[in-house]
């Protein structure tokens, strides 16, 4: 039965950030699926906890909803993980790799520490979205090139060019999405502002009409009082 080696995961995470070349030069290509999947899930949970903490500070009353969303995101992220592994394995195979699907899955799982880092970067005010898009993609590209060369034995120049083209396309799609989203948000804010202004105008007119009615009723009452005398 496969075991979760906590110390190895800690050591590999340290190497990932401090000595990535050493990590991929001595990469463990086999050993089962349990540990890499668990490692990916663990990093996903850490990233989600960062998000929950951030949003709980801003909106404490939504803690329960955030926890539910976090739990629901885990199986969704696992599906995305397997899909991305299949895509990476196909790319590596087309580039000449002879490694197994398990090796590709382990390479993909090794990138998991970038998820919580990307979450932290995305939370930076004003520039978070752009940092999360460009710098995050560049870092992923750097590690994929290392894994391609040191694990899958693909020439560095070929790996650089192929993944650079793919990431330029991803960055363009991402940038287009962000711009469209920002335009949509601005239009929504503008529409809400116009609705609020229209509501305020109507309320002001309503108050003015009510004051006129009040003055008229007051005048009628005063005249009736005079006539009765």
What would a concise description of this structure say?
The chain is mainly alpha-helical. It has helices spanning 6-18, 20-25, 34-58, 63-94, 101-110, 114-122, 128-150, 156-228. α7 (128-150) runs antiparallel to α8.
Structure report:
- This protein has 229 residues and is mainly alpha-helical.
- 83% of the residues lie in helices and 0% in strands.
- It is built from 8 helices and no strands.
Q: What helical percentage do the residues reach?
A: over 70%
Number of helix segments? 8
- Distance, first to last CA: 105 Å
The oligomeric state of the chains shown is single chain
Structural class: mainly alpha
Q: Biggest β-sheet: count, sense, barrel?
A: none
| Whole-number mean pLDDT | 85
How many separate domains?
A: 2
Q: Could you name the ranges where pLDDT drops below 50 across 5 or more consecutive residues?
A: none
Q: How many beta-strand runs?
A: 0
Strand content: under 5%
Name the shape in a single word.
Answer: elongated
What's the SSE pattern? HHHHHHHH
How do the strands and helices of this protein lay out in sequence?
Elements: H1 6-18, H2 20-25, H3 34-58, H4 63-94, H5 101-110, H6 114-122, H7 128-150, H8 156-228
Helix pairs in contact: 3-4, 3-5, 3-6, 4-5, 6-7, 7-8
Question: What key phrases describe this protein's structure?
Answer:
mainly alpha; 229 residues
């Amino acid at each position: 039965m496969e075991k979760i080696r906590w110390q190895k995961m800690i050591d590999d995470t340290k190497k990932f950030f401090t000595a990535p070349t050493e990590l991929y030069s001595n990469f463990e290509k086999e050993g089962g699926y349990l540990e890499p999947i668990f490692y990916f899930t663990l990093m996903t949970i850490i990233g989600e906890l960062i998000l929950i903490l951030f949003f709980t500070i801003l909106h404490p009353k939504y803690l329960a909803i955030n926890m539910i969303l976090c739990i629901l995101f885990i199986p969704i992220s696992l599906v995305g993980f397997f899909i991305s592994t299949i895509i990476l394995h196909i790319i590596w195979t087309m580039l000449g790799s002879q490694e197994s699907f398990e090796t590709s899955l382990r390479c993909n799982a090794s990138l998991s520490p970038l998820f919580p880092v990307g979450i932290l970067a995305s939370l930076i005010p004003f520039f978070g979205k752009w940092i999360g898009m460009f710098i995050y993609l560049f870092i992923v590209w750097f590690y994929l090139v290392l894994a391609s060369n040191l694990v899958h034995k693909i020439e560095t120049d070929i790996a650089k060019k192929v993944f650079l083209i793919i990431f330029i396309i991803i960055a363009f799609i991402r940038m287009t999405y962000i711009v469209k989203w920002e335009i949509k948000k601005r239009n929504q804010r503008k529409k809400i502002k116009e609705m609020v202004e229209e509501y305020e105008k109507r309320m002001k007119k309503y108050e003015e009409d009510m004051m006129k009615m009040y003055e008229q009723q007051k005048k009628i009452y005063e005249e009736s009082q005079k006539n009765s005398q």
